[in-house]
């Protein structure tokens, strides 16, 4: 017999597809109570409460048994089972189960699929939930919560529809919803957005007024800050467009299967976060179960935060593994779908972006294991729809002295809960010897961490609880390890002592691992063993609860256990053995990172890899190498720090070398700065001039791309001064090449060419072909500025050949993009188009977002000059999607190409706005070339708009600046535009003189524009 239940409406039972009525009201109430908790035992007391509340008759229990018996006759004997003082309904054929499964599936899909699944889930609702069930208790509790859950899902579906642009269709539905739920603010917010996006701004403003008036009259309060901000944005016409590519992060660790007790606290914290409290801080001593409690609450609240859950272990009490706020913010932003190269460099900018990303979303943030308020404060988004759950050993008073913030102090388990937790591991051994079990709980301080370890030990050793307690009370090992009678240390010692000698050795050495987690490969490198041996030993440590397997193939320590392992390795191992283990650890990470670099399409990694590595690496192709580099990024940073602390300078320099190009290409500029600053501090400390020069050069490059070219020159001067004291020829060539780029950007092409020629000679002498390719490409850029396009073409083509020979496809793509501009200027339009399209394809294939963005900029400018405004706009939008937030130079270039696209489409106001934005940003940053380009763009816009005299000022400014900095091609272009403006202003003679100067320059440079200027001269009297 097949039985199906429906409770999202009137209660329905289907047996073999036919509706079978449950006529008796009490039976419907019993069945509803069991269905609302399907799969879980519902106690007799709960069922009696659902049936009669506080007015239970003396025959209530007998009556309940009668109702259960009649339901069994109707549904089949095996549907409702007796279990542990109550009853359980064992079926998943319930519309509520189907509803929740559809909602769960919707969370990790595309917007279109999410909308479809949420609609399908909501279609299961046939009316008011269990409308025909009469039970005060159920309607006040379970049914009320279920109705709230249904409304949450409805909100989610409406949000997705808004994201998909279905605003017009939603207006009618939302008007009905705000009438039915007059104080549910998100429905009002959605109605305002739907009206505004339907070009009904006035009505959207009236909706806000109606809601504000109703709130004031009924409750004497005002709408939330979030809704007032939306009202202001609608008022000034600055509401953000619907989001695209919404990513729903689901970062919560798995729920704790043996979670015991704390239900009152779980309920309290859940209620706080669900009813407007923005932040809850859970504090308590180490090992008391703060993380388990936070994870349990977060899993319970997942459905209330449908836009995702973010989680991070802040490792507050493990300095070596502790991430910086910037690293955490960057991780969160990437989890929310922000491309890596769009993540800002500074913590303030990252925090601002996080607030923007979360401003319209409901996301739960779990910040585990914080050390102080300063570590947490930048991570709090302070947006209306989000909530934050923090755990810490300290109270964090600086955070809790604010409204919408609550503190929860967590103490040790009660004796009853401690015994229940022990029973999860040892079963009937607890009731078999309650006295010894209670003694064990006391010895463990009723701490969950210590109890879990003790329980795992008993289960593994197959001893009795009393035997284990005797060992804890009287063992010499405890006496040797106890500090102030520490119960946790006693539990650790007992567990540690039961391990095999090999597992104890691995556990000790794992205390040297600096990063937040590790793999079997790391474990094998530490003890110089095979991978199989390390994996088996890790299994033993996991079984003993001394390490956690938190992801597939990845392990981590509780902070207390990490500290304990570090103590043990110092106490039990010789200094030379510790040094050897550190050497193995560094060697393997360097070997793996270097191997990954050889598989990636970046500058060839030519340094010799360590030979002492016994095991290989966990990847064998490009995709695996890239995934490994991303997965291990935090650990690699920690290993760099370990090399610095341990004085392993050769390892340190090699790590910087192997990681720098990869991190830079992926836009991980924050990580780049961290390793460069660490390398510089070490280089200065050991007085290594070559390393000092290289680190200053790295920092100079970061300073340049962040928008401070003059600050970059200061760093490059330091690099050159250090290089004079002892850098290698190759290091000096690298610094000269990089420094030339800044001089080029500032318009000093003569000095740039001088530096590039010197660098090229050095590279040729030391046979550094890849570096020579870069300097030849850079020479091509400098010669372009001087208008020497034939020489520029020769250098670019040489750079392309050299890069191809070396397999440096990232450089190859960059040089192709530069060659495209040269070909265009020389009149080879098809060659230009082919080169830039190949550059875009190469960059996309290699994942070079920054280079691809600039190639799209170049292609967009080419299309705009050909009059293809739509094509130019398409390229500009692609560039905007790819360019990094930290790349100010690239962002200014994107603003300029948007201006060119709008100009080609005759959208003059937008063009003018883009060019002005670019000019202001370029002037502030010192980007001379961009400033000249923006000024010429404004002059062209003025020419089209007829605002001639203002445009003449822009053209003259561009010409003067280009002339001052030797940017001859821009000077000639400025003269060309100025002549057109002078002609329109009636100054024909001056226009002819200006064109004659432009023509002479274009002819000398061999640029195709010379013909257009000659035509103007021929047609002007």
Structural notes for this entry:
This protein is mainly α. Among the domains are: 164 residues, Orthogonal Bundle (Arc Repressor Mutant, subunit A); 64 residues, no CATH class; 146 residues, P-loop containing nucleotide triphosphate hydrolases (Rossmann fold), CATH 3.40.50.300; 84 residues; 89 residues, Tetratricopeptide repeat domain (Serine Threonine Protein Phosphatase 5, Tetratricopeptide repeat, Alpha Horseshoe). 66% of the residues lie in helices and 6% in strands. The protein is built from 50 helices and 14 strands. It has a 5-stranded parallel beta sheet with strand order 8-9-10-7-11, sandwiched between helices. The chain has a 3-stranded antiparallel beta sheet with strand order 1-2-3, with no helix packed on it. The protein has a 3-stranded antiparallel beta sheet with strand order 4-6-5. The termini are far apart. About 1% of the residues have low confidence.
């Amino acid at each position: 017999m097949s039985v199906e239940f429906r409770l999202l409406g009137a209660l329905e039972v289907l047996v073999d597809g036919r509706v079978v009525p449950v006529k008796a009201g009490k039976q419907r109430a019993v069945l509803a109570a069991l269905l609302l908790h399907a799969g879980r035992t519902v106690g007799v007391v709960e069922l009696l409460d659902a049936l009669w509340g506080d007015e239970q008759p003396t025959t209530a229990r007998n009556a309940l048994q009668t109702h259960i018996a009649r339901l069994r006759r109707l549904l089949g004997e095996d549907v409702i089972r007796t279990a542990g003082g109550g009853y359980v309904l064992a079926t998943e054929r319930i519309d509520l189960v189907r509803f929740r499964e559809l909602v769960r599936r919707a969370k990790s899909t595309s917007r279109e699929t999410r909308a479809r699944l949420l609609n399908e889930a909501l279609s299961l609702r046939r009316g008011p939930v269990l409308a025909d069930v009469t039970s005060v208790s159920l309607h006040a509790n379970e049914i009320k919560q279920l109705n709230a859950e249904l409304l949450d899902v409805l909100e989610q579906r409406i949000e997705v529809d808004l994201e998909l642009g279905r605003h017009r269709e939603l207006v009618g539905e939302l008007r009905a919803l705000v009438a039915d739920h007059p104080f549910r603010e998100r429905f009002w917010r959605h109605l305002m957005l739907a009206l505004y996006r339907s070009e009904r701004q006035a009505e959207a403003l009236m909706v806000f007024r109606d809601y504000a008036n109703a709130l004031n009259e009924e409750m004497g309060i005002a709408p939330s800050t979030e809704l007032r901000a939306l009202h202001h944005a609608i008022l000034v016409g600055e509401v953000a467009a619907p989001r695209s590519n919404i990513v729903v992060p689901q970062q919560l660790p798995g729920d704790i299967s043996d979670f015991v007790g704390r239900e009152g606290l779980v309920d309290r914290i859940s209620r706080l976060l669900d009813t407007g409290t923005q932040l809850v801080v859970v504090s308590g001593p180490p090992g008391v179960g703060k993380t388990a409690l936070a994870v349990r609450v977060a899993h319970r609240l997942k459905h209330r935060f449908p836009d995702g859950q973010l989680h991070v272990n802040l490792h507050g009490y493990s300095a070596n593994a502790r991430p910086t706020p910037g690293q955490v913010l960057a991780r969160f932003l990437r989890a929310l779908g922000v491309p890596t190269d769009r993540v800002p460099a500074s913590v303030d900018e990252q925090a601002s972006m996080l607030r923007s990303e979360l401003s319209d979303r409901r996301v739960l943030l779990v910040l585990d294991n914080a050390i102080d308020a300063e570590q947490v404060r930048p991570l709090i988004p302070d947006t209306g729809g989000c909530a934050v759950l923090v755990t810490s050993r300290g109270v964090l008073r600086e955070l809790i002295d604010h409204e919408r913030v609550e503190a929860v102090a967590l103490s040790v388990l009660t004796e009853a809960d401690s015994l229940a937790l022990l029973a999860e591991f040892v079963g009937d051994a607890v009731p078999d010897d309650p006295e010894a079990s209670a003694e064990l709980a006391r010895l463990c301080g009723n701490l969950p961490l210590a109890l879990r370890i003790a329980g795992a030990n008993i289960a593994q050793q197959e001893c009795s609880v009393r035997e284990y307690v005797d060992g804890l009370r009287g063992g010499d090992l405890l006496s040797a390890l106890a500090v102030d009678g520490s119960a946790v240390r006693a539990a650790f010692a007992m567990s540690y002592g039961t391990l095999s000698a090999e597992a104890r050795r691995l556990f000790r050495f794992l205390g040297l691992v600096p990063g937040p987690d590790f793999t079997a490969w790391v474990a094998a490198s530490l003890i110089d063993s095979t991978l199989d041996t390390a994996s088996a030993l890790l299994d033993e440590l996991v079984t003993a609860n001394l390490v956690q397997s938190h992801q597939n193939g990845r392990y981590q320590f509780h902070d207390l256990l990490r500290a304990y392992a570090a103590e043990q390795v110092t106490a039990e191992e010789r200094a030379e053995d510790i040094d050897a283990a550190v050497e193995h650890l560094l060697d393997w990470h360097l070997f793996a990172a270097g191997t990954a670099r050889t598989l990636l399409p970046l500058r060839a990694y030519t340094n010799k890899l360590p030979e002492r590595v016994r095991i290989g690496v966990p990847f064998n192709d490009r995709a695996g190498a890239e995934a490994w580099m991303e997965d291990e990024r935090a650990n690699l940073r920690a290993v760099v720090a370990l090399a610095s602390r341990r004085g392993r300078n050769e390892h340190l320099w090699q790590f910087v070398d192997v990681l720098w190009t990869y991190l830079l290409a992926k836009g991980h500029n924050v990580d780049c700065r961290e390793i460069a600053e660490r390398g510089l501090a070490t280089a200065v400390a050991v007085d290594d001039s070559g390393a000092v020069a290289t680190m200053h050069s790295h920092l100079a490059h970061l300073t340049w791309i962040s928008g401070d070219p003059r600050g970059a020159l200061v760093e490059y001067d330091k690099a050159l001064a250090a290089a004079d004291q002892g850098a290698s020829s190759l290091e000096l060539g690298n610094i000269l090449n990089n420094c030339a780029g800044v001089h080029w950007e500032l318009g000093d092409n003569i000095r740039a060419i001088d530096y590039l020629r010197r660098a090229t000679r050095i590279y040729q002498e030391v046979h550094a072909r890849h570096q020579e390719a870069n300097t030849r490409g850079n020479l091509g850029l400098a010669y372009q500025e001087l208008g020497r396009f034939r020489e520029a073409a020769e250098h670019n083509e040489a750079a392309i050949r050299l890069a191809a020979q070396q397999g440096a496809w990232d450089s190859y793509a960059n040089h192709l993009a530069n060659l495209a501009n040269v070909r265009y200027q020389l009149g080879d339009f098809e060659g230009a188009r082919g080169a830039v399209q190949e550059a875009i394809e190469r960059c996309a294939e290699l994942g070079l977002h920054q280079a691809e963005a600039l190639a799209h900029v170049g292609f967009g400018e080419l299309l705009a000059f050909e009059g293809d405004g739509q094509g130019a706009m398409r390229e500009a939008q692609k560039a905007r999607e790819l360019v990094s937030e930290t790349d100010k130079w690239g962002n200014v270039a994107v603003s300029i190409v948007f201006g060119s696209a709008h100009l080609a489409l005759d959208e003059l106001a937008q063009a003018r706005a883009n060019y002005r934005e670019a000019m202001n940003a370029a002037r502030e940053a010192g980007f001379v070339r961009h400033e000249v380009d923006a000024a010429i763009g404004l002059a062209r816009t003025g020419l089209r708009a007829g605002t001639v005299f203002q445009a003449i000022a822009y053209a003259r400014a561009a010409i003067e600046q280009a002339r001052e900095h030797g940017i001859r091609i821009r000077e000639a272009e400025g003269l060309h535009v100025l002549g057109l403006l002078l002609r329109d202003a009636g100054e024909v003679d001056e226009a002819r003189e200006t064109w004659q100067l432009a023509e002479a320059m274009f002819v000398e440079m061999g640029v195709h524009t010379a013909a257009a200027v000659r035509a103007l001269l021929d047609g002007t009297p």
